[in-house]
Amino acid sequence: MTAADAAASLDRRAFWTAQLEAAHAFMQRMFAYPVVECGEPAVPLREAAAAAGVTVAFSDTRIAATYPRHFLLREGLIPAFVAAARALNQRGWILKVEDGYRTAEMQKQLSLAPYVLDRVLAKVIWELGGQLPSPELFFRRLMGLTATAPKTGTHMSASAVDISVLQQSDGAALDRGGPYIEMSEVTPMLSPFISSAAARNRTLISLTMGAQGFMAYPYEFWHYSQGDAYDEFLTGSGRPARYGAVAIDLSSGRVTPLANPCASLHAPQEFRQAMDEALARSRN
Predict the structure, then answer these.
(1) Fewest CB atoms less than 10 Å from the CB: which of 61, 96, 140, 144?
(2) Confidence (pTM)
(3) Phi and psi (nearest 5°) for 223?
(4) What's the pLDDT score for residue 269?
(5) What is the helix (H) or strand (E) element at residue 94, kind and residue range?
(6) Per residue in 65-123, pLDDT tens?
(7) DSSP 3-state assignment of 210?
(8) Which of 55-59, 195-199, 210-214, 275-279 has the lowest mean pLDDT?
């Protein structure tokens, strides 16, 4: 490795550390952010897109290789979603919804899934120059990349979508500097470690989504939400969030607020076991 390569690697590690620390601080603020749940039902996005005549793609993968995805958003967000999808269509692009609403169990299992834990563990070992992290540091990093409590995970509010964008011409994914899901120093929306073309695409997508009220999460380039704690805090609205963590009756869309949204989804021993298993896989 040349001196220039070593310096670049240090820059990347410093950026990763700073961004993940900022993401952790953000999550702490989300625990405290006020929510006044409005009780608005959730609506299936497939049906909404079809009814509006807009072209939208949907992921066919499963969460934690087990759970089918629930492509739901709150009813009041449907016009904005449709308008954003239509605006992307007019650019020659297709909005692909990678994920929507998650139950608490889905969120928990996603956080413990090997393909998530292994990627995050590898990056934290890299961050530490080859040293193994403490469980506390590993959990801290995970918290910035995947919600560890319902209050901090807006997918559990049915107010967020994870998206990719495809080209209408050939169906290829638009270059955003990395795939969904990427766990590295290119993951933050304003990462300096992506090409100018990828940065431009991120900006254009965020402007299109933002024109319809969807706020970009600063620490993941694929996550957009509206009306929840992320949105109200990042816009500095001073308003409480109107969408909080809920359970949804999938047949009717009726929502029920979760009783203890600040409770951790992971028991300490359960997480420690998952970390030990990730460490064992890293040695193989």
Answers:
(1) 61
(2) 0.93
(3) -105, 125
(4) 87
(5) strand 93-99
(6) 899 999 999 999 999 999 999 999 999 999 999 999 999 999 999 988 888 889 989 99
(7) helix
(8) 275-279
HSE, CB side, 13 Å, CA atoms: give it for residue 171.
2
Phi-psi region of 171 (alpha: psi -120 to 50; beta: other; left: phi over 0): left
Q: Which amino acid is at 86?
A: R
* CA separation for the pair 138, 92 (Å, rounded): 41
Contact 155, 101 (CB under 8 A): yes
Report, as an integer, the average pLDDT of 207-233: 98
Environment class of 227 (CB within 10 Å of its CB; exposed 0-12, middle 13-18, buried 19+):
buried
252-273 mean pLDDT: 92
Burial class (CB in 10 A: 0-12, 13-18, 19+), 113: middle
Residues contacting residue 243 through CB under 8 Å, at least 6 positions apart: 35, 37, 38, 40, 74, 154, 157, 158, 159, 227, 228
